[in-house]
Design brief:
Elements: H1 3-11, E1 14-16, E2 25-30, H2 35-47, E3 52-57, H3 65-72, E4 75-78, H4 85-95, E5 100-103, H5 118-126, E6 130-136, E7 141-148, H6 155-169
Parallel strand pairs: 1-7, 2-5, 2-6, 3-4, 3-5
Antiparallel strand pairs: 6-7
């Protein structure tokens, strides 16, 4: 038992489905309504001894805090100089071995019904599966599902899966700030489609 495993136990949190995590995957975390989500998620990933990265705005990578972002928080920068999040993430998968990218599709701490499809695009372009991590602050539980292959699950199906998993196993820290993924016409899943990629190569040009 490492330090983070002990800390997680002291805090009263439990992880279910740890063995479902793929060595290389995009981990979509929901619900996301508090900065504490990231703290608990970070401790949980360290407790499971999972090699992972997150993406943060490059404006946060200033001296000397950039060393904390890079080496302590496992963050990689995105922005005008570094490239957008999709380009940065696909490059990371291309240049590394076993590594997981942790993303919150909601993208904001406030209630949003239109979630970002970036996590799906990254997984599709990088040829890695998607895992879902659901937080339950009421029961202090983390439930992990998957992995889901983007060749078999389109983006609509993934959003539907996240909605169902959160409904059954999740509880946001601030429930009033959480909304399931919805399309503009009020459906429970997003209707936009991701084009199929013929191969796994990322065009860096």
């Amino acid at each position: 038992m490492n330090f983070c495993s002990l800390l997680l136990k002291i805090l009263g949190w439990k992880i279910y489905g740890e063995n479902f995590i793929s060595p290389r995957s995009v981990i979509a975390v929901a619900p996301h309504t508090s900065y504490l989500d990231g703290v608990i998620g970070f401790i949980a990933m360290k407790a499971m001894k999972i090699r992972f990265r997150t993406i943060s705005a490059e404006r946060l990578f200033f001296f000397p805090f950039k060393y904390v972002m890079k080496f302590a928080l496992n963050a990689i920068p995105c922005g005008p100089r570094s490239g957008n999040s999709i380009r940065v993430a696909t490059r990371m998968f291309k240049e590394n071995g076993d590594v997981n990218l942790v993303i919150c599709p909601e993208g904001h701490l406030k209630a949003v019904d239109k979630w970002s499809k970036g996590f799906y695009v990254i997984a599709k372009m990088s040829c890695v599966p998607i895992n879902i991590a659901v937080l339950n602050f009421k029961k202090k539980e983390i439930h992990i599902f998957g992995p889901f292959d983007t060749k078999e699950f389109d983006v609509d199906t993934m959003f539907s899966e996240i909605n169902e998993d959160v409904e059954m196993f999740g509880e946001a820290r601030h429930p009033e700030k959480y909304l399931p993924a919805q399309s503009s016409d009020g459906e429970t899943i997003l209707t936009s489609r991701i084009h199929n990629f013929d191969d796994c190569d990322v065009n860096e040009s």
